[in-house]
Structures are given as C-alpha cells and as structure tokens.
Amino acid sequence: MRRLFFITLMSLTTLAMYAQLNNASPVDQKVEALLSKMTPEEKVGQMTQISVEAFLKTTNGKLNEPHEFDMPKLEEAIRKYKVGSVLNVGGNAQTLEAWRKRIETIQKLALEERLKIPVLYGIDAIRGNNYTLNAVLFPQQIAQAASFNPLMVQKAAEVAAYETRASFIPWNFSPVLDLGRQPVWPRIWETYGEDPYLITEMGKAAIQGYHGVGSAIDKYHVAACLKHYMGYSMPLSGHDRTPAWIPERELREYFLPQFAAAVKAGAKTVMVNSAEINGVPVHADKHILTDILKGELQFDGFVVSDWQDIQYLFQRHRVAKDNREAVMMAVNAGIDMSMVPTDFTFCEALVELVKEGKVSMTRIDDAVRRILKVKYEVGLFDSPLGKARDYPLFNSPAHNKLNYEVASECVTLLKNNNNILPLSSGKKILVTGPSANTMRSLNGGWSRNWQGDNSDETEKEKNTILEAIRYVFGPANVEYSEGADFSKLVNIRDVMNKAAKSDVVVLCIGETSYTETPGNIEDLTISSSQIELAKALSATGKPVVFVLTEGRPRVISAIEPYSSAVIHSYLLGNEGGNVIADVLAGKINPSGKLPYTYPRHTNSLLTYYHKHTETLKFDEAAGFNPQWEFGYGLSYTSFRYSNLKLDRNTLTDDSSLNISVDVTNAGKVAGKESVLLFISDEVASVTPEVKRLRAFDKIELQPGQTKTVSFTIDKDRLSFINKELQRTTEPGEFTVAVGGLKASFKY
Ligand code: BGC
Predict the structure, then answer these.
(1) From its phi and psi, is residue 339 left (phi > 0), alpha (psi between -120 and 50) or beta?
(2) Distance in Å, CA 177 to ligand 1 centroid
(3) Residue 306 Cβ < 6 Å to ligand 1
(4) Which of helix, strand or coil describes residue 699?
(5) What is the CATH number of the domain that holds 720?
(6) Does one domain contain both 418 and 332?
(7) pLDDT at res. 21
(8) Are residues 530 and 660 in the same domain?
(9) For residue 205, is it within any domain?
C-alpha cells in the first residue's frame, strides 16, 4: 500500500513537472533536465566561485609572471569541488593570448567532468577589459555620466563587451549602480554620480551595450552584473565597507530605482553590497535579497556575493559565530553564488548544511537553476571557448577612436574667466602638478591591476597630459616642472622660474589611483602640497588653468580663486591626455556637466536634491552653497533657452505632459548641450526635495542654430515613496525648470 502510494505520488510529481516543463522555455527545460541529474556536491560546486590566484604558481610568495597554472590545484577545484565559477586576474593584466589559454585550460577540465558543465568566468571589465593588456580603457563611469549621453555609454559598453569576449570571458562585474552621493567614499568614481534618474538611464544603456539585442547573449557580448546591491555607497563615515544607516523609505526612493530598472532591462546577475545597512550586513539580509530583489522586482538571474563577504559575516561583522553559520545565513538570505574567494570552506560547509536540513534542497535548486540558466544564456554550453579569429577589432583604431569621442563628451569646463580658454597658439605654456605626467591619474583604479598603480608602465604608449600638450602645442612652446607630488613640493624654484617665463600655467592636480579600502581618506580637501603649489604659482601673476584629475571631488575652495579656468577631467582613461590637450587648444568644445555636486566645504556634502531646510534661505550660515552644483558645465559657446511650453496646465492619470523648449547656439562655435529638466513638487506628505532631475537630452548645435527639445512626463515620473513605503504621486502644484526658465502645472 505504502509502495503504491509512493508510486502514485511520484507519477503525480512527474506529471506536474512535465506540465510545468511544457510551458517552460527551451532554456528552462535544459536547466531542469541537467539539474535533475546533479548530486548535492555538484550543485554546491556550481554555487562556488574561486579567485584564479588560488590555482596560480608562485615563487617566494609572488605570482609567476606570466601566470602559470598550478595544475594539481586547478584539478582539485574542478574535479573534487566541482567549482562552477572563477574570477579575477590574479595581480597584473595578462595578454590576450594568455587569457585564451587560461580559459581553454579551465574549460577543458570542466568538460571532462561527468555533466560537462562549463565554468563561468567573471571579471571586472568595468570600463573596458582592463585585465587584458592593450584592451581599450574608456573613461571611468563617473566621467561617462558627465557626458549625459546614454548612447555614448552604450557604445563604450559594446566595445568593452567585445574586448572582454575576445579574452573568452562572458561575464562582466559591471555596471556599478550605487548612488554616488557621499564624495568621501573611495568608489564614487565607479558610479554614475548622485542622481537616481541619471544612474538609471546610464545603467540601462550600459546593459544594452553589454548584452546586445535579443534575449541570448552572443559571442560579442557579455552578461552584466549590477552592483553593489544596495546602499553600499553611503557609509556614514565615507569609508569603504563601513556601516550605512538608510531607512527603507530612503532606500526605495534613491537607491533601489536604478536596480529595478536594470532588472527590468534584463540584467542577469547582481552582486551584493559588502557592508551593513541599519546593523544588518546585506549578505545576511533576506528582506533585501529575497523579498525585494527576487520577489518584488522578480529578478530571475542569480545573486553573487562580493569578495569574501560570506566569511566576513563571522570574521568581521560578527553576526555569525563561524563559517558554517555564515554560509547558512547567506544562502538562506538569498545568495546564490559565493565569491569565496580562495578556499573550499564554502562548499564543505554547504554540503553539510544541506545534509542536516539547515539549508533546504529547494533553496539550493533555486540557486543552481538561476546559475545554469545564465550559463546557457551566455552561450557557454554551445561554445565554452571562443575563436580567436572572431575578434579582429580588439584594440583597433576604431575602438580607440570611439574612446577619444566618448572622453571628449565627458570633460567638463567649470570656469573660464575672460574666455582664457581655448589657448591661442604660440603661447608659452608651463605644465606642472603631480598629475601632469602620469597615466595613473587619468585612469584611476581597476586599470591593469586592482589599484591601477602600474599604468605608467602598461600604458606607456598612451599620452599623459604633458605629452599630449607637447604634441598639440609644439614642444618648443611647452615647459614642464613637476612642482609637487601628492604629498610634498618638488623643486619649487624650478617651477617658479619656468612660470615666470611662460604666458600661462596648466596646473594638473587631483589624486593618484586607488579603489576600495586603500582609497579611504580622512580629509576631502585636496592635499596640502597641491594647495601650496597653486598658491605659489598664483603669486607669479600668470594665469593658471587648473586641470582636475581625480576620482572624487576634492575640496579646492582654498585655491579655486587663484585659477583663471578649471577643467574637470575626472578619470578620463587612456585618451584623457589627448582630450585635455585638444580642449585647451579648442579642437574639442567641452560639453560635460557635473554628475555630482562639487562641495565647497568638507562638512557640507549636500546633493542638489537637498531639502528646503538645507538651503541658505533657512540655514543662512551653512546651507547649500557648493563650489559647483550637479549639472553645471560651461562651453566655448553660449546656449540661449527660450519658449518653454507646456501643452497642458493639468496632468491627469491618463494623460501625459509635453514640455518643450527652444535652445539656440548664441556663440561662434559649434557645441553640444545637455538639456536638463528639473521638476519640483511644491508640497508633499514627505518633505519634497528642492528639485529632481526628471529628464534630459543632449543635442548638438551649429552657431546660430536653434533646436526644439521636447520631453514627455507622466505622473509616474513625478512619484515618490511615501511614509507607507508606497510609490505615489500626490495631487498638487509642480514647477518645471530648464535652462533658467520656469513654468508650473498641476496634477
Ligand atoms: C569589489 C567588487 C568586485 C569584486 C571582484 C570586490 O572587492 O567590491 O566591485 O567586482 O571585488 O573583483
């Protein structure tokens, strides 16, 4: 009887499965078929990601260069532990050929296994395939955001995907969708800036570029990984991987929308915030990982931990007493894959936890299903490698030309007294400052290695700012003196002598490369050696043009008055030197606008979407008074805005509002202009921000030309998260502001 019952139950289950499968997509059917054959150990292996340095040969504790596999270790990972994913470069960038061999070796082993499941290799190709030598290094995300041009972001991502796939890698830990509103944080330059709408639009563009069109990812594209979900970017202290306090309403208002939009745009993987929010490490937060991400947002890809973050639950955060408890917490909270990164403690603990019933097989199956699905979607089962001949455009002139074009749209002119720029030819120029002659300050972190500290060697074929200025203005017109490094003055007498003989000084200041915890700082003010150098130069009476090369907006209020012009170049990448020289010469008309608010004071770090109580009107002594506001940026021409028109006075639930404005190039040279549309909700049940960016568009205008720019706004665009954590649009009065013009409407 019991047997009969069991058989009936089995057939019912099989029938149910079949019914389900018949409705399932072909990929889902393949995933189910494979999953049904897997042992618990094989499943747990798929959930394990190991960093490649765990299997590389070393000499005296240092990795052999070029890298060599320690085969017994690699075999242990694949054969014994059934590891499903590998990441990282292990130290320094490798050649394209070395990468291909690396992937071939790994996949060969994986395909010798019983189920022949290819390994999913993931890499931080965050603005170009930076861990492969010679791959194009585009501007970092913060610079790309300043372009306000999603099409440029998409094109750069397409090339990054192509060049990553050329190394046979199908998975990219990019884009960063963190809200860049804490300027002290050492990863602000990895973000698209402080505004959720700008991040959303740039994030969607990047995903489109990485994924290409259609649901499958072909051999020229990669799966994107949204990171770092969510709230990572706003540590109270500004220091990386330290606590944030973010109430859920604020999480939903400012931090979640960009992830929600990216999930909707088809993102396949998500990496988790390494830090804690409100006392809960996000790697252990079921509400954020499962309820919101997989439930509400219906994310059907997989969630990967960040570096060692499951182990950190007990090693650092102390919410778990040991590794087993940490693994249980994280997997039950919704982590599908652990970036362990260099041992097999995750696999061992998880297999035990499953046997003990502390992690259910349903949870494991869910995780593995998600991972296998992505492996199918990136085409790994069809072609686990690639064909070298498919990628003739790697580091091609076309890719490098695009890099120059993207960087040209990012560079931002913040000051230009008496139109001192562009510089007329024949001028005697002194180039000075710690970032004048180094690729590190143009590229920042994640450039051929994690901290980007060897890009002067790896990128020596590219032009530093000094080299490019010499090329553009002629070596006879250009003098150089270092003046200062980032911590002390260097031969100040030389720089003063050379300044005295020049017509203009180009002072390159900012930061060297860094990322993550090594980039933590105690003071947002630019370093004192650079302040001293700027002050000394100003005493010569020569006009000084500041070029800012920095990953975060270092406070320069003490020296800004000594500048005649300021060019902000963020981290412009490998074409940065050429672009800056061409901006100085007027060959490029700058069109970038600030993607964050540039602070004037270290204790006033407000965003443009601050509240009314934070304005000078009510906080007379220290209200919002930044050095430059979000969206600020000058041009060599001037744009006149006129004819702001709304096609109706009242927006309703089933209508939308058309807003148009005429923009005229009133100057003498062609230029590009980002038209930013801000809307203020005048009165709301949750204190409204003074304004929010609700739309933008970038246009190009010849001298004298006028274009009409139109935006369509519906009620959702005006919505906010109310006290009940619901998205809502409340009836009332709204003010539109664009290019200095204003108009009102009601909803
Ligand atoms: C970073 C991630 C990165 C990962 C893998 C972590 O330290 O936080 O952004 O993707 O390492 O390299």
Answers:
(1) beta
(2) 14
(3) yes
(4) strand
(5) 2.60.40.10
(6) no
(7) 52
(8) no
(9) yes
Residue 102 lies in a domain: yes
Domain span at 718: 639-746
CA of 306 to the centre of ligand 1 (A): 6
pLDDT tens digits, 59-76:
999 999 999 999 999 999
Q: What CA–CA distances, in Å, run from 461 to 395, 397, 456?
A: 13, 14, 9
What is the average pLDDT across 604-621? 97
Mean pLDDT (the chain, rounded): 96
Which of the listed residues 174, 271, 312 should we mutate to test ligand 1's pocket, taking the one with most ligand atoms within 8 A of CB? 271
Q: Given a cut of 50, is residue 540 above it in pLDDT?
A: yes
Report CA dihedral (609, 611, 613, 614) to the nearest 10 degrees: -30
Give the DSSP letter string of 327-381. HHHHHHHT--BEE--SSSHHHHHHHHHHHTTSS-HHHHHHHHHHHHHHHHHTTTT
pLDDT tens digit string along 188-216?
A: 999 999 999 999 999 999 999 999 987 78
Name the packing angle between helices 361-377 and 323-333 (round to 10°).
70
Q: DSSP character for 637? A: S
Domain count, the chain: 3
Residue 22 confidence (pLDDT)? 61
| Residue 97 within a domain | yes
What's the CA gap between 607 and 624, in Å, rounded?
8
453 a catalytic residue: no
732 part of a folded domain = yes
* Structure confidence by residue, pLDDT tens digits, 76-122: 999 999 999 999 999 999 999 999 999 999 999 999 999 999 999 99
Q: How far apart are the two ends of the chain, measured CA to CA in Å?
A: 68
Answer yes or no: is the C-beta of 307 below 6 A from any ligand 1 atom.
yes
User: 3-class SS at 599?
Assistant: coil
Task: Give me the catalytic one of 240, 285, 306, 582.
Answer: 306
